[in-house]
Amino acid sequence: RFTPPPNFIKDIIDEDLKTGKFGNRVHTRFPPEPNGYLHIGHAKSICLNFGLAEEYGGKCNLRFDDTNPETESEEYVKAIQEDVRWLGFDWEDRMYFASDYFERLYEYAVELIKKGKAYVDSLSPEEIREYRGTLTEPGKESPYRNRSVEENLELFERMKRGEFPEGSHVLRAKIDMAHPNLNMRDPVMYRIKYTPHYRRGTDWCIYPTYDFTHCLSDSIEGITHSICTLEFEDHRPLYDWFLDELGVYHPRQIEFARLNLTYTVLSKRYLSILVKEGYVSGWDDPRMPTIRGLRRRGYTPEAIRDFCERIGVAKRNSLVDIALLEHCVREDLNKRAPRAMVVINPLKLTIINYPEDKEEYLEAVNNPEDPAMGTRMVPFSRELYIEKDDFMENPPKKYYRLAPGAEVRLRYGYYVRCVDVKKDPATGEVVEVLCTYDPETRGGWSPDGRKVKGTIHWVSVRHAVPVEVRLYEHLFTKADMVNLEEDDDFRKYINPDSLKVLYPCYAEPGLRGAPPESRYQFERVGYFCVDPDSREERMVFNRIVTLKDTWSK
Ligand code: ATP
Ligand code: MG
Ligand code: MG
């Protein structure tokens, strides 16, 4: 078992518990914006926030950060709840919506105006940007900055009542237009928007910004440690400023590095382009790094949680090898997934000395890693399918599978020796392998102790279930999709061969009717999961991962 990597956030919490900064409480939150589906990066944040609460006997809220009516919807709220639950976490009765705080936030804004700490600005959005200055140049104060408290109160009230068009006024915090941190140069607190909100309808036509909303939502909910990604480090002074000016309960914001994975993208912008432009079939396409995509692909919640634990949390951004994620699901499924024999590139094999109408059932082990999973009986007959790869007419040295004159073991079955082949007269391609079998070798070994190195899997033709198999590769051909040059189009790196569909493949009959999300190890081939596209007459299996582990520390 691996040792969990050090976690600087736990050090901070331990210290706060020692000094009693928040008494003996640990209270975190996971704050998604319901404007898209969750991805593996969000899973890291979910595991971290819910995991810390669990570990310290604390609490974790699920809070929808829903202050932008243009992009949010109920559909996403539902999907996010489902995904968090599927990952194995429970917010119990602690589900909150920032949009429920609009009234209180408005009161807080009025309080800041009264203190002379906020003002209504009537510059255009472009002018506001222009006046902000740059990293090397101080900003310029707006001519509206010194409006009286009375005038600000009246204008803000009228903004709320819907008397002004969008973009005509904003409410800004009055901090310092020469502050070295641009976020502190009189940041916008409220904007006018007439788009109805998915929960609040037309109650409001002014909407608070992330910076003003987030710290106060944390404060209202009594959060102790507000964990967010590194981009918000520069926003922390503002987080603290609002809470200090208002003199309210003050949680601690802690930033950690966001997860980046090789050969994929984890930004909603890129992911939605993949969906909209049809590069994938939807948000739940098994190639997508979304929770729904991973789930449909066949990933288990346990594997995703294990992955999140292994990558740990850091203060520096980095790129995690997707092979580690694959390694985690492989480890999990190796212990749990029942084995099955499925031939994905079929070649017919006929045993010429096996009676034509005979069939027998051979005992096969369900999982060599777990004897408790027992055995099953697999039908065997004269005509079988084997993998094309398991036969070579002119084999190189050290090829231990089937070749003219060579003998192999049929898994759980008999030894067979290739005595002839049938070829397609037009192409010369081998279309059938003719073998003899040794009846003394039932079960896979011979009384005379002769050595057979190769073991291959097979499926009886008469009993086979024809199935569709979908093989997936990485979505992108480039490992580092995070640090693209600005003028570099990410579409250039989309892997044109990320999906390969094989049909018919042949499965042993025990797989017939397995429901979606059933996972198997197809012996010698990989781990597979039943896709919801499956129909009774045509089951569909997604390849979760191959058997070969490419991850190394
Ligand atoms: P995106 O860039 O995909 O839109 P976001 O940060 O805008 O992501 P939110 O819904 O606001 O999406 O995210 C909810 C929480 O998940 C936030 O606390 C955010 O910090 C965290 N989160 C999002 N992406 C990652 C990531 N790649 N790694 C770690 N945490 C993440
Ligand atoms: Mg976002
Ligand atoms: Mg966000």
From TrEMBL:
<feature type="domain" description="tRNA synthetases class I (E and Q) anti-codon binding">
    <location>
        <begin position="455"/>
        <end position="531"/>
    </location>
</feature>
<keyword id="KW-0030">Aminoacyl-tRNA synthetase</keyword>
<dbReference type="GO" id="GO:0006425">
    <property type="term" value="P:glutaminyl-tRNA aminoacylation"/>
</dbReference>
<comment type="similarity">
    <text>Belongs to the class-I aminoacyl-tRNA synthetase family.</text>
</comment>
<dbReference type="InterPro" id="IPR014729">
    <property type="entry name" value="Rossmann-like_a/b/a_fold"/>
</dbReference>
<dbReference type="Pfam" id="PF00749">
    <property type="entry name" value="tRNA-synt_1c"/>
</dbReference>
<dbReference type="Pfam" id="PF03950">
    <property type="entry name" value="tRNA-synt_1c_C"/>
</dbReference>
<feature type="domain" description="Glutamyl/glutaminyl-tRNA synthetase class Ib catalytic">
    <location>
        <begin position="26"/>
        <end position="334"/>
    </location>
</feature>
<keyword id="KW-0547">Nucleotide-binding</keyword>
<keyword id="KW-0963">Cytoplasm</keyword>
<feature type="binding site">
    <location>
        <begin position="266"/>
        <end position="268"/>
    </location>
    <ligand>
        <name>ATP</name>
    </ligand>
</feature>
<feature type="binding site">
    <location>
        <begin position="258"/>
        <end position="259"/>
    </location>
    <ligand>
        <name>ATP</name>
    </ligand>
</feature>
<dbReference type="GO" id="GO:0005524">
    <property type="term" value="F:ATP binding"/>
</dbReference>
<dbReference type="InterPro" id="IPR020056">
    <property type="entry name" value="Rbsml_bL25/Gln-tRNA_synth_N"/>
</dbReference>
<feature type="binding site">
    <location>
        <position position="229"/>
    </location>
    <ligand>
        <name>ATP</name>
    </ligand>
</feature>
<dbReference type="InterPro" id="IPR020058">
    <property type="entry name" value="Glu/Gln-tRNA-synth_Ib_cat-dom"/>
</dbReference>
<keyword id="KW-0436">Ligase</keyword>
<feature type="short sequence motif" description="'KMSKS' region">
    <location>
        <begin position="265"/>
        <end position="269"/>
    </location>
</feature>
<dbReference type="InterPro" id="IPR049437">
    <property type="entry name" value="tRNA-synt_1c_C2"/>
</dbReference>
<feature type="binding site">
    <location>
        <begin position="39"/>
        <end position="45"/>
    </location>
    <ligand>
        <name>ATP</name>
    </ligand>
</feature>
<feature type="binding site">
    <location>
        <position position="210"/>
    </location>
    <ligand>
        <name>L-glutamine</name>
    </ligand>
</feature>
<comment type="subunit">
    <text>Monomer.</text>
</comment>
<feature type="binding site">
    <location>
        <position position="65"/>
    </location>
    <ligand>
        <name>L-glutamine</name>
    </ligand>
</feature>
<dbReference type="InterPro" id="IPR050132">
    <property type="entry name" value="Gln/Glu-tRNA_Ligase"/>
</dbReference>
<feature type="short sequence motif" description="'HIGH' region">
    <location>
        <begin position="32"/>
        <end position="42"/>
    </location>
</feature>
<dbReference type="GO" id="GO:0005829">
    <property type="term" value="C:cytosol"/>
</dbReference>
<dbReference type="GO" id="GO:0006424">
    <property type="term" value="P:glutamyl-tRNA aminoacylation"/>
</dbReference>
<dbReference type="InterPro" id="IPR000924">
    <property type="entry name" value="Glu/Gln-tRNA-synth"/>
</dbReference>
<protein>
    <recommendedName>
        <fullName>Glutamine--tRNA ligase</fullName>
        <ecNumber>6.1.1.18</ecNumber>
    </recommendedName>
</protein>
<dbReference type="InterPro" id="IPR011035">
    <property type="entry name" value="Ribosomal_bL25/Gln-tRNA_synth"/>
</dbReference>
<dbReference type="GO" id="GO:0004819">
    <property type="term" value="F:glutamine-tRNA ligase activity"/>
</dbReference>
<dbReference type="InterPro" id="IPR020059">
    <property type="entry name" value="Glu/Gln-tRNA-synth_Ib_codon-bd"/>
</dbReference>
<dbReference type="InterPro" id="IPR022861">
    <property type="entry name" value="Gln_tRNA_ligase_bac"/>
</dbReference>
<dbReference type="Pfam" id="PF20974">
    <property type="entry name" value="tRNA-synt_1c_C2"/>
</dbReference>
<feature type="domain" description="Glutamyl/glutaminyl-tRNA synthetase class Ib anti-codon binding">
    <location>
        <begin position="337"/>
        <end position="438"/>
    </location>
</feature>
<keyword id="KW-0648">Protein biosynthesis</keyword>
<keyword id="KW-0067">ATP-binding</keyword>
<dbReference type="InterPro" id="IPR004514">
    <property type="entry name" value="Gln-tRNA-synth"/>
</dbReference>
<feature type="binding site">
    <location>
        <begin position="33"/>
        <end position="35"/>
    </location>
    <ligand>
        <name>ATP</name>
    </ligand>
</feature>
